[in-house]
């Protein structure tokens, strides 16, 4: 037995038990090695006239023997000599593929330089189009995660002899002369015995192997062939003379085997969009991402330059049922040289575009030694930034060119975009704000913020919104009708995330101050129920001051009657028909408080500062004045409480004591 040419026990144990975390990827690694071997032979055929190889003849074969508990991966690639086997398999972490890749890069660079010196560029397409997958020389040893013994039989192209390498992955290996009819390599994995925790025998089954090939190696560029079992109907024999001709013959079936190509080879995302029909994209999406509806949008990206990658992205037509649960996993499938690296690479998508599904394939990525995660994520971040711009641009195009489709999209995923602004504390608003839609009380349809501003009166400096649980109720709120009466629109926000989103944005766009284009300020986003809206005229302010001064004692009596429910009772400058309204001060609205109360940690709610705004022109206020002047403190107290509770109900909030409110109403009806 030959000893491994490294700190064998420690390093091999690291290869088998620490670097890889998923045992089933052993097949991916062996197929990737086989693909590299075939690639090397094809490259040799381009530069060596003595090697005649047709690309259509190159293939990888996977076989299994359930009784012997073996899995075999074979190729008709370049093969290995005895010395190469000793060097590549006997030295852990030695990568012949890495050396090959480095040598090809150097040759391509030299050829380019020579071409420039001669004034004529060299044809390098065939030199560089050899996408070697392996780099580290440890993928082969993943076979020992599932195998108690591995045997490799290889015959180098141009050689008359084959050699066998065999090891149990512990101390060393044996090498003996062997038989192989043609060049190439067979890797035979003798599976470990099954345990209570793991069933290694599932790898020696047709279903087990075909599912792994389709999952991890479906787009390897060479056909992966395997003998599979099929059934077919057998024609019933003709009835003999004298038999009952009317008796139906029972259908007969037979089982047979055939060699079938398991993988698709050419990934759809590598093809130009002009070469693929939308039906093909739809079928790929529904099959690979298990959706029963066609995607709403398809985005195909082919990037070349400092970073080369292909991406195929889909915007679903409907949100998945678990979209807003903690178990939902966002991310794109990440491939490197057509080999699946990660099912869900979260780094490729920001949370607010987490509904997008698809694949990204780049051979430029720097993978870690196991290829299950990335060694450096700078390249990934660069791809993610570009994909974010592509997704944003495509959604903007849908918004502008197919509004009906966009509104259907926004109904499904608009909450995610709004939450993206809130979650980022407003930092994502430059990306997302112009994609948002809100219901316009004035136009009675969904509009963007830009469309709101395009319809705003001259001199407008704010965007107004009202938050609650129902558009119908919001449209009837006194504060909303007042703003509408002044010629301004109000966005009716009926989702629980809306007000958080609006507060996180704070401002949107810009407008010229006093017609000076060089002096611009942003439009402030204001809740109609919080703080001063800036719509009160000087005359209205003066009238309010006079009414406040002449009714100071009444307002104080009402404030005392309401106790700690309000901090102030004031004259309203923005009510027309309603007798009173409850407003908040400090930016936290009543609607937001109701949302916060339903969340965990409700005991830590911010302090709410409320004011009761009274419409002094309403007949109810005259009744209050009369009761106060008559010294009827009880009526003042009861009416103040009624005004406050009915104002809460208008806001969609239940009074603290519904029974007392009902009794007070009944008392008025006596």
TrEMBL record:
It comes from the Bacteria. GO terms for cellular component: cytoplasm. Residues 1-371 are annotated as: A. Gene3D superfamilies: 3.30.230.80, 3.40.50.11260, Heat shock protein 90, C-terminal domain, Histidine kinase-like ATPase, C-terminal domain. Keywords: ATP-binding, Chaperone, Cytoplasm, Nucleotide-binding, Stress response. It is found in: Cytoplasm. Pfam families: HATPase_c_3, HSP90. ATP binds at residues 29, 33, 75, 80, 88, 135-140, 185, 371. Its main location: cytoplasm. Residues 595-670 are annotated as: C. GO terms for molecular function: ATP binding; ATP hydrolysis activity; ATP-dependent protein folding chaperone; unfolded protein binding. Molecular chaperone. Has ATPase activity. Homodimer. Belongs to the heat shock protein 90 family. NCBIfam families: PRK05218.1 (NF003555). This is Chaperone protein HtpG. It comes from Adlercreutzia mucosicola. The lineage of its organism: Bacteria, Bacillati, Actinomycetota, Coriobacteriia, Eggerthellales. The gene is htpG.
């Amino acid at each position: 037995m030959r000893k491994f040419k490294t700190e064998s026990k420690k390093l091999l144990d690291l290869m088998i038990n620490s670097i890889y975390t998923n045992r089933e990827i052993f097949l991916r690694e062996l197929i990737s090695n086989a693909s590299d071997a075939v690639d090397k032979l094809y490259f040799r055929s381009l530069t060596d006239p003595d090697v005649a190889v047709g690309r259509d003849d190159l293939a990888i074969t996977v076989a299994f023997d359930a009784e012997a508990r073996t899995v075999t991966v074979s190729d008709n690639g370049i093969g290995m000599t005895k010395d190469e086997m000793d060097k590549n398999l006997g030295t852990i972490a030695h990568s012949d593929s890495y050396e090959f890749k480095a040598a090809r890069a150097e040759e391509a660079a030299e050829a380019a330089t020579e071409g420039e010196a001669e004034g004529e560029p060299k044809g390098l397409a065939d030199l560089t189009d050899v996408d070697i997958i392996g780099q580290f020389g440890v993928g082969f040893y993943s076979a020992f995660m599932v195998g108690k013994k591995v045997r490799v039989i290889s015959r180098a192209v141009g050689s008359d002899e084959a050699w066998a390498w065999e090891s149990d992955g512990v101390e060393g290996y044996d090498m003996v002369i062997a038989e192989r009819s043609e060049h190439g390599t067979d890797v035979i994995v003798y599976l470990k015995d099954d345990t209570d925790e793991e069933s290694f025998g599932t790898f020696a089954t047709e279903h087990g192997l075909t599912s792994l090939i389709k999952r991890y190696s479906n787009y390897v560029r060479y056909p992966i062939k395997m003998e599979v079992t099929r059934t077919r109907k057998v024609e019933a024999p003709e009835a003999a003379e004298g038999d009952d001709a009317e008796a139906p013959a029972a259908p007969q079936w037979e089982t047979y085997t055939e060699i079938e190509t398991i993988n698709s080879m050419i990934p759809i995302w590598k093809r130009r969009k002009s070469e693929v029909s939308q039906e093909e994209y739809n079928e790929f999406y529904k099959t690979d991402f298990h959706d029963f509806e066609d995607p709403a949008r398809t985005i195909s990206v082919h990037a070349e330059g400092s970073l080369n990658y292909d991406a195929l992205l889909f915007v679903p037509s409907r949100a998945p049922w678990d979209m807003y649960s903690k178990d939902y996993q966002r991310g794109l499938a990440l491939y490197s040289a057509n080999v699946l690296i990660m099912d869900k690479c979260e780094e490729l998508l920001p949370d607010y575009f987490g509904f997008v599904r698809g694949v990204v394939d780049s051979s430029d990525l720097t993978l870690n030694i196991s290829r299950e995660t990335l060694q450096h994520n700078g390249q990934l971040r660069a791809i993610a930034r570009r994909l974010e711009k592509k997704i944003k641009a495509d959604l903007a195009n849908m918004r502008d060119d197919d509004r009906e489709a966009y509104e259907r999209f926004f109904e499904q995923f608009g909450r995610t975009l709004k939450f993206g602004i809130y979650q980022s504390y407003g930092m994502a608003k430059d990306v997302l704000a112009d994609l948002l839609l809100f219901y316009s009380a004035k136009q009675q349809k969904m509009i963007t913020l830009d469309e709101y501003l395009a319809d705003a009166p001259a001199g407008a400096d704010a965007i107004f919104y009202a938050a609650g649980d129902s558009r119908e109720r919001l449209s009837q709120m006194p504060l909303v009708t007042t703003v509408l009466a002044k010629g301004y629109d109000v966005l009716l926000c009926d989702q629980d995330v809306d007000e958080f989103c609006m507060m996180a944005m704070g401002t949107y766009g810009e407008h010229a101050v006093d017609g000076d284009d060089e002096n611009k300020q942003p439009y402030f986003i204001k809740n109609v129920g919080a703080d001063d809206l800036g719509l009160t005229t000087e005359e209205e302010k003066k009238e309010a001051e006079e009414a406040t001064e002449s009714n100071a004692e009444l307002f104080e009596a009402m404030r005392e009657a309401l106790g700690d429910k309000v901090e102030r009772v004031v004259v309203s400058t923005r009510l027309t028909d309603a007798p009173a309204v409850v407003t908040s001060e400090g930016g936290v609205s009543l609607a937001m408080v109701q949302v916060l109360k339903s969340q965990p940690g409700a005991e830590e709610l911010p302090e709410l500062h409320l004011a009761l705004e009274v419409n002094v022109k309403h007949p109810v206020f005259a009744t209050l004045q009369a009761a106060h002047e008559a010294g009827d403190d009880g009526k003042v107290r009861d009416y103040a409480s009624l005004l406050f509770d009915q104002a809460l109900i208008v806001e969609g909030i239940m009074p603290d004591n519904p029974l007392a409110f009902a009794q007070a109403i009944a008392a008025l009806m006596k």
